[in-house]
Amino acid sequence: MARGEVEDAEGQPIYCFDLVMFNKTPSGAHDDRGLVLKAFHDNTIRVRCADGTTVVVKACDVTVVDRSDICRSTAVTSTDESSGVVTGSTTALDLVRLSTGEVVARGVSPSEVQRDGELRLGDYVVMGPWLGQVVKVCLDVDVRFDDGAVCRVTQARTNLRTLDNDLSRGIFYLGQRVVGNNSSVFEENIVRKAARWLKGRPNSRKDEEGTVAKVVVSGVLVYWLASSHLGTERTPLFQASAPPACQCNIQNLTLFNCSGYAHLMHQVWVVGDRCVFRDVPHFRGRAVAGHRASSNNSASVAAESLCVANTHTTVDVLWQDGTRQYDVPSTSLASLTVWNQHEFVPGERVIRRDRDDGPHLGIVQSFNFKDQTARVSWFQASKQGEAEETVSAYYLDVSSDHHLSYGSVVVLLRPTDSSPFREDGEGEAQSGKEDLSWVGKIIDLCDGQYIQVKWGNGNTSKVLLQEIAVVKPQSIKEMLQEINDSRSMGWANAVTQAVIQLIGNVIAQGKRYMFSRSAAVYDGDVDDHAMEAAAAVAPESDVRGRGSAQQGNTEADANGGDHKSGFPHFDVQQSPPDHHYLNNMAEQGTGGGTKWIKRVQKEWKILEDNLPDTMYVRAFEDRMDLLRVAMVGASGTPYQDGLFFFDLQLPPSSYPNSPPLVSYRSYGLRLNPNLYESGTVCLSLLNTFGGEGVELWSPTASTVLQVVVSIQGLVLTSQPYYNEAGYAKQVGTPQGRRNELPYSENAYLLTLQTMLHLLRRPPAGFEAFIREHFRRRGQHVLRACEVYLTDGCTVGTLDGEARPTEVSTERPCSAGFRLALGNIVPRLVEMFKEIGADGCQ
């Protein structure tokens, strides 16, 4: 739900999972408040009450009273548009009986209760020195029928369905009404073992309703994330040493409580959640106003599930400017669903890669979103006085070696023969309980040398980065897939694959070394670090094709360069040695047959007759299955005057039943959500992105021309931020406006870097074209840079002559963008002078 779509009676934006109070009780509602499930365009919202009833009401008839889903590690923004990260959260629960609605207790801490069922999907668990995450839960449910008979049903999620309109979120709870999914569920079957009668006889139970009397976790599937001895790197030794993924006796597992963390939404408490007290005797001392606590009362509480009827949440926030605020009401904040790539919070470890003396590691002290600048303390300053400085955010990337964030799960590394970690004599494993002193959560990053961690045994300490291993969050789907792959492959095969991968990495490093050496010979001014990054994603054929590219440049210089008219939009040549699909041997173009050849020739004719002025295509007579496409970035976009190259293959074995294969020449840069560093092009027409109808490839109606025109028109757009999946709904919203400009600024900077890469390492066959393009348009590129630097115009709003338009002054570009642009312009000037660009001599 995007910000600002609907507002409550007080003008407060309403989001999914907000707790709202009805200003007047709607028809069908049994409570005075409920949880927002969905907002509609007619300013109405769907709300679910604690008892499961669902009502649709006008947004102006409710008031937002709590946001319990704003929890630790959540990125948030305030009413004054400040942004930060939640470093701590406190939620108090009011509990009622499901059967009567009677209030049982108020202000209950989540630590005092637990959901029905000992473990849930996504829970972190500990077994000896191993930390894992539950990726699958098997539930057995005891169903009591009205005649007193009791049946235990295994695989309950498959064999039972609920009758109540509840908020259990896939979990069965005591007192819930259920029925079998089919007539045979309650029949004792030795083969299926779906049911076992504990009391009474099966009889005929078809469509007979029952009540959940007990919920038992019969087994779980665990993805092992880390070991206190082996860390988090999934080496063959790690995989061979890990416990079995399938754990049938959950008593061997100890829950590591991560309650209140954003990446574990199932552990966030909301109205309608079912629970039981962890310690019923403790409850006996908790009297509720107007209710007398007694042993009988506590016994009845233990016999049935309770329901969360109200929540009250406050949070602690670390703002991007470095200030902290405590006990902030959750309703004064909103979750940020999108955190920009170059947006940071204090304490994050970052890498600066634009320095001539190599990457620098630092820690962010503060961040200014409006200016897109960060104050960074460097761990090793290259010059005196540079220990701390303000830099452009576009220079920085989060360190891939330090996956640190507030709420990150970490393990303390210790030798195999060491005793359990203790602090001041505390933290020793208690008898019968698992030692949790080595697994914890990051609660503070702001110390440049130390990281503050709260351990599973309740202790808090500061540790050095090298003393811990950080668990990188993964989706349940990814972890399940890896478990299934490892089962099918076997550990022995896994070791073999690891060795093969190691050999491949060594060979790849050798190729990159050879490539960077050859680049240094041909282009003495090449940025070595940028070249290494580009070589890391370049195909093997790039290494072989470097000589022919240089030869082409020499020939162009000798002839004085080709003019625009001398480079046709479509032509047929010999295949280049650096084509991405050149060595795709399984799809060689010699066995396509007459029908395929005619289709390819038809595609050539369509391209030759209909290409736009900003697009150039080369086909190859010796490899009819290959094409190379160049397109010019349109004015009024962040890609203005840039060149973008794509290699295509029309596989004889599958084309045209399947769309062409397309690879973008990225040079290791991702300047668009649809264009990946790996070269992948995300487009519905290529079946690499979701779509329907005419958006998808049609063997009879779709053409290569349609593909390349779609890339230019739908991908290289004026607002590329909204190309990201699901972001289109943010158009016109505050969150969309917040993020669209930084994305465009970064896209423009990457477009300029791509220009430099193309001039240094042009794709074979287009050497003369690239030089001629920048001879003609180089002055316009520099003029655009000057307009951005001096006038602060909005990126991607200039006309074809790089002059401001009516919308160019609506939103000035950021100071951080101008800092980064000022750094790259001298390199552009030097390169344009080298090729004799107009107006740059």
TrEMBL record:
Residues 595-756 form the UBC core domain. This is UBC core domain-containing protein. InterPro entries: UBC (IPR000608), UBE2O-like_SH3-B (IPR057733), UBE2O-like_tSH3-B (IPR057735), UBQ-conjugating_enzyme/RWD (IPR016135). It holds the Pfam family UQ_con. One of its GO terms (molecular function) is ubiquitin conjugating enzyme activity. The lineage of its organism: Eukaryota, Viridiplantae, Streptophyta, Embryophyta, Tracheophyta. PROSITE patterns: UBC_2. Residues 536-574 are annotated as: Disordered. Gene3D superfamilies: Ubiquitin Conjugating Enzyme. Keywords: Transferase, Ubl conjugation pathway.
